Amino acid sequence: MVNISIPANLLPSDGRFGSGPSKIRSEQMDALVLASRHILGTSHRQAPVKNILGSVREQLRQLFSLPADWEVVMGNGGASLFWDAATFGLIQNKSEHLVFGEFSSKFADAARNAPHLDQPIVVEATPGEVPAVQLADVDTYCFTHNETSTGASMQLARPANSGDALVVVDATSAAGGMAWSPKEVDVYYFSPQKGFGSEGGTWIALCSPRAVERIGAIAATKRWCPPSLDLSIALDNSRANQTYNTPSISTFILLNEQLRWMLDNGGLPWCVQRTTQSSQHLYTWATQRSFASPFVANPQHRSPVVGTIDLDGVDATQISNILRENGIVDTESYRKLGRNQMRISMFPSVEPTDVQQLTACIDYVVEHLS
User: Fold this and answer.
1) Among residues 72, 76, 182, 215, which is most buried (max CB within 10 A)?
2) Which residues pair with 302 in a beta bridge?
3) Pairwise CA distance, residues 108 & 121, whole Å
4) Closest CA to 89 of 54, 123, 56, 114
């Protein structure tokens, strides 16, 4: 380990740049401490906790400007569990998956391995690129708004002439930091440990009336499904501001406070403005350095919330280790991508000025390594 001490005036005010779990604001922790006196440790079937879940559902409606007939559905287990639930309760027979990274590939694998479904159509792109939709005879299109592993993102648009097919979108690292329209989507699902600065182990799905109808139609067929993966059960419980199984109450308290902060400051447009400011600086900085370049070649596909930067002539792991010694953490590349790369989150909680300070720190480290 090379011992490099970064001057204090260069350091960001907060050194957390992880892509999930992500930075939790101190105000969220204050809300958690306050809740510890009268909410934590109480029944999740009683009003105090149900009111928190109800507040989360209502604030999500406001943040995303959801039509009145949309449902906010919640369950335990994170987005990984939701992929399995979708194979039981959203995909009727056959799906199409756009795969351009680790997490989009996992949903495709879940559908591929489900014995009660037809083999899915999988349209795959090289990591860092985004595949195009292939119109096909499917009942569900499965997209990823932002691929956390690669820092590539896609514009959400309902495929032309897609008929009654649902558009189901993994928004785990996009939600709260990227714009989208409910007109183009039927299910927008995510976990709250990224853009919302909460904890993992929970999934939330924003569902259109068409998606709710599909959930009910599949449930009516009596297709076997474990109760913990049954989206019709999750829907019924969510309407009562609760989850089927005992939730992590602290997760919802952190999320509730984060949503309040987002809405108080201007809602989704304000959040997107922050992530755009941060990401524009990061990518501009990378293109102006001889040792760095954005991994995603097409600027239209570069993520505003998770930036991946390839390094040349310097060791990314060594730089991340030195940054960590100076209190700047979680800038390492995604473990399975295997590139000389840094991955930097720019979720709404991350101050744009801290992204600027981070790049100044990287410059300082590279200069002192040469």
Assistant:
1) 215
2) 152
3) 9
4) 114
